[in-house]
Amino acid sequence: MSQSERLVLATRYRLVSEIGQGANGTVWRGHDDLLDRAVAIKELRLPADLTENDRVVFYRRTLREARAPAQLRSTSIIEVYDVVIEQGRPWIIMELIEAPSLEQLIERSGPLPPDQVGYIGRRLLDALAVAHRSGIVHRDLKPSNVLLDGDRVVLTDFGLAFSSGSASLTKTGHFMGSPAYVAPEVAAGEKATPRSDLWSLGATLYAALEGKPPFERDNVMATLSALANEQPPTPRNAGPLASVVTGLLEKHPTRRLTHARAVDRLERALTGPRSARRAGAPRLRVMAVIALAGGVVASCAIGATALTVGMMREQPDPKPSTAPPPTVAPGPNASGSLLVKARTAGCRIFVAIPGDTLTVLANNETVPVGSARRFDQPRLNAVVYDSSACEVWVNGRKKPLGGPGERRNYTVRASAGQ
């Protein structure tokens, strides 16, 4: 165990394990010993060559990242619990959401259906309404900053958020934000406004429907050039959401949909004959859990750097459908099966049969040392949380062991012969 993993912040926040790194720091899974709950902890590292003035700016930006969502009360906005200064650097204590980001779902599943995107968009409009009423502009809304936790859609990473009551911390000439999702007026150097967030929402919904953002190019300069000089392409897969997306992607802020008009158009689209409003939320849950089974991430960005984190849910998933009980076998498996043997303590697994109705066979289950769990199904998705603690056989072939604490995903197909 490293020195950091033994660290306890403010005598109560214990670092449990590292779950991701970025250019500016580390995200940890932690535990609040006082309230006995799991938390996410963002450790922000200051570059060694910072001047004293830059160090002050860094601290202020950190506090702003924490204060912005802390002022807001919405199930669609990440909850921040605390900020502490330890070992000369800031640490942000926040809600631990073990769920995939919209970006990961798009990468895994490709373009999403309009009813699902509409449901996500409606929840994000709710989150933006709460933020904008409090004078807070997010400034970095994009798929990697949207988490899908069952029916819950959560907006994260307020590291670039701007409050009307605070001074700007962005240096002149420095571009902040994600070029593929930034509003044209912000890219041109103008101050971000609530309508800038609505543009970013439109680009995010476009990416969910089409598989990529509207102005994405091979490099930053090409993306910014397209943003400045080209009209947004017409979405091909938007269906009833087309008028919402094109209205949000109006280049001139005054012609762009207002929040109220966006809500109205989206509500009409969701209640139209081609949509399935009531099915939207359950479908979101199924898609999110399938993404969990195949490789979950939570986006915990540090500053302007997106940091992807592999995590799994530990609460009950959708009620499993009836399935044959798995049997235990001591040796290698046959085709279409998975065998997990516990080498040491900490062999913990998630196993499910993918499909329109997810069948969960093992939900965050710990296999006793010396025991084995065998699953015989033509299709399986599995996650092993500590691949050094488990011996894994897929279709009769032994998989290599991983490092301590390393999470690995496995896909079983009867004909794959993995």
TrEMBL record:
One example GO MF annotation: ATP binding
EC number(s) recorded for this UniProt protein: 2.7.11.1
Domain spans labelled Protein kinase: 13-270
Pfam families named among the record's database cross-references: Pkinase (PF00069)
Database matches in CDD domains: STKc_PknB_like
Region ranges (Disordered): 313-332
Binding, ATP: 42
Record key words, sorted: ATP-binding, Kinase, Membrane, Nucleotide-binding, Serine/threonine-protein kinase, Transferase, Transmembrane, Transmembrane helix
Compositional bias of kind Pro residues: 318-329
Annotated transmembrane regions: 284-312
UniProt-listed InterPro entries: Kinase-like_dom_sf, Prot_kinase_dom, Protein_kinase_ATP_BS, Ser/Thr_kinase_AS
Keyword ATP-binding: yes
Record protein name field: non-specific serine/threonine protein kinase
Organism whose genome encodes this protein: Actinomadura rubteroloni
